[in-house]
Automatic annotation (TrEMBL), chains A, B:
Gene: cinA
SUPFAM superfamilies linked: CinA-like (SSF142433), Molybdenum cofactor biosynthesis proteins (SSF53218)
Entry-linked InterPro entries: CinA, CinA-like_C, CinA_C, CinA_KH, Competence-induced_CinA, MoaB/Mog-like_dom_sf, MoaB/Mog_dom
Residue ranges constituting the MoaB/Mog domain according to the UniProt record: 4-170
Family, as annotated: Belongs to the CinA family.
Name assigned to this protein: Putative competence-damage inducible protein
One family name in Pfam for this protein: MoCF_biosynth
CDD domains associated with the record: cinA
Length: 419, 419
């Protein structure tokens, strides 16, 4: 069955609010195996709402409205639908009683327009509103299932969960829901990843594979139809294993979490600690690590050594690495190694990362924007360093440098755990 | 003129991401006087993208796409439009060169599919992508203006501002252009700000005032129609002055920059320096400061002392403040003061900020999530400290703590400059 979500509200068209309702309803539909093919946003205008309904009923089996059930003259969803199909508008008495008693409890004066919130299209099923006043409606006309929900998320969400889900399960003829799993990758770009599994993507029927990229990470969503989570896992296993065989060095999680959360988990589990010396990332690595709840169990802190003076004073980087005619400079593998080792001994941690580079715009020390060195010092092992040439603006370079540092540490933790 | 926004991407239909692009584009359209009547979301499916275009061209003069310009087989927006109108697909050579040089700089292998990002519909105007690879397109066919933008917000937004706005101004027949100015506020919430200038907002005709909030900052956009920037400035001056009279202690800029950029500018101008000791913000303050190009002129760096051990060792915070039955603890005004003073003397900076608090979720040291202390040490002055009770999740608390620290420092710089 195909679904369409229609959000009604001029405030959405003006960009005053973001359409989080569409996301919530889309997630719920995906989860129950209802394919959303379109989402539409339309303003509080009767002709345009009508035209949106005409288009939707031509291409969807289920049309889910959110918004336009309130008390004002602008709230038109029920009226438009009733008029289109020549249905009477009735008053839903239990909802009317609830509205009346709310106003009398508050000692407030009920204005005429509040009655509109108890409106009920003839022949529809009322959907109870536990957190607000406007009653929802669900009805099937000419084979199309219409669901009318209020706009405020705090009213819409409970109504969806408690009233719409059972109603939809009753009318749907597809008993096999969708299940999906997120595979998360680091240290590889979207196009290289796609290239490596193109035959799997192209040959897909069930499960299906969909790669996408955001914020320096690449995700592949594996989706299948199955009656239980166990069955879904079994169906997804062969393709997941094949992807792991090809890209295991980049696949850091099989759920939607950032790589820094995996690192914190790994470290905390084995009671190991991390400290970070940051130059060009300026604190971004620590910021990301400390977004993870409980990060204090593994992350001790670090030093943001933006100036050469602090690199020398707090991390003991020798001045003859940092400055002078023949010095390698602050952006060099020598500096990255010295920073990581200085951090390890200052913090007395098990691991220390260091990042130094040119965030841009423009070059520095005669080195190009995007040139970054990452050092990794590990207690009892030789310090390693990696040189990267990253692209993008200042924000991107900083983000990619941080994600590359996480990838380097994650690989090192992986390799150790395999020994 | 009527506009429609079409966001292309199966991840939107599955509810994996929220359609913030539609909100951004809708705001920009509203601002330039372009009425958005519909927003549509469609998946990565050629027939359905085609049908969305057919509907849109029947009801809009301007159709703005976002998404589907990437390198993968799923990215279809340009292909569908070119096929519908029988146009050839060309390679935009400057974009191709940029893609090639990016891969060669990175030493990475360019796969065939990356070429798709340089695709360019015959007869269209290329829209430069300054923060990514996919070139945008703008073209007018049969009286309909089509604009094709990438999906990632960090590519879409600069392309809209720098490329689409002038292109649209060229095709729109608005005789008197809009001019606007952003007034940026810190240390005040949106509702308090609105309350303070409600009479000005309600009484507005030209200029108009529109307040909105994002990421811990509040903005008021002042907009007027004028033939020149000089005329616009003159028209905006009385209301801007009245706002300054009422809210000068919060109004930190008359252009759209974050408060940390103003701080870096102020400090660099007078050759003063800043260091930051961060506990609960975990590096977020340094991260934000170093997003400002040239921040190295004023920001020396800092210490992320997530553990008590590092607070003591690197900043000299006495252990009897941090631990023990009757100790004030790491989240206390005593700790914040000691951290700020330790940072000032360690970095030998002119200013030092410190932040310590409970980011949550859940309490720590028996103190509630959101309790934050900010210290400010200034060379030759008594250290000051502020206690805040912030609301929201871990991410919000960290962000608000950072913005509150910036506000505290900005006020201090303001007061000094008035002496």
């Amino acid at each position: 069955m195909k679904a369409e979500i229609i959000a009604v509200g001029t405030e959405l068209l003006l960009g005053q609010i973001v359409n989080t309702n569409a996301q919530y309803i889309a997630q719920e539909c995906a989860h129950m195996g209802l394919s959303v093919h379109f989402q539409t946003v339309v303003g509080d205008n009767p002709e345009r709402i009508r035209s949106a309904v005409e288009i939707a009923r031509g291409r969807a089996d289920v049309v889910i409205f959110t918004g336009g059930l309130g008390p004002t003259q602008d709230d038109l969803t029920k009226d438009v639908l009733a008029q289109m199909y020549g249905r009477k508008m009735l008053i839903h008495e239990p909802s009317m009683d609830a509205i009346r008693s709310l106003f009398s409890n508050r000692g407030a004066h009920m204005v005429e327009s509040n009655i509109r919130q108890a409106n009920w299209i003839e022949g529809s099923d009322p959907l109870k509103n536990e957190t607000g006043l406007a009653v929802g409606n669900a009805l099937t006309i000419e084979g199309i299932h219409y669901i009318l929900l209020p706009g405020p998320p705090k009213e819409m969400k409970p109504m969806f969960k408690n009233e719409v889900l059972p109603w939809l399960h009753g009318v749907m003829k597809v008993p096999v829901p969708l299940h999906s799993k997120m595979l998360k990758f680091a240290g590889i770009g979207e196009s290289n990843l796609e290239h490596a599994i193109l035959d799997l993507i192209d040959g897909q029927t069930d499960p299906t594979l969909a790669p996408y990229a955001k914020e320096g990470e690449v995700t592949v969503r594996v989706t299948t139809r199955a009656l239980s989570i166990q069955e879904a896992e079994l169906k997804m296993m062969p393709v997941t294993e094949e992807i792991y065989r090809r890209l295991g060095a980049h696949l850091y999680a099989e759920r939607d979490i950032p790589i820094e959360a995996v690192i914190i988990e790994d470290l905390a589990k084995s009671k190991r600690t991390l400290a970070v010396a940051e130059s060009c990332t300026g604190g971004g690595i620590g910021d990301k690590l400390t977004m993870v709840p409980g990060s204090g169990d593994a992350y001790l802190g670090g030093i943001v050594c933006y100036s050469n003076d602090l690199k020398h004073k707090l991390l003991g980087v020798p001045m003859d690495i940092l400055e002078g005619e023949n010095a390698p400079g602050a952006v060099s593998s020598e500096a990255a190694i010295s920073m990581a080792e200085g951090m390890l001994s200052t913090a007395e941690s098990d691991y220390a990362l260091s990042v130094t580079g040119v965030a841009g715009p423009g070059s520095s020390e005669g080195k190009p924007a995007g040139l970054v060195y990452i050092g990794l010092a590990v207690r009892g092992r030789e310090t390693v360093v990696r040189e990267l040439q990253l692209s993008g603006n200042r924000e991107s370079v900083k983000l990619r440098a941080a994600k590359s540092a996480f990838y380097m540490l994650w690989r090192s933790l992986q390799e150790e755990s395999m020994k």
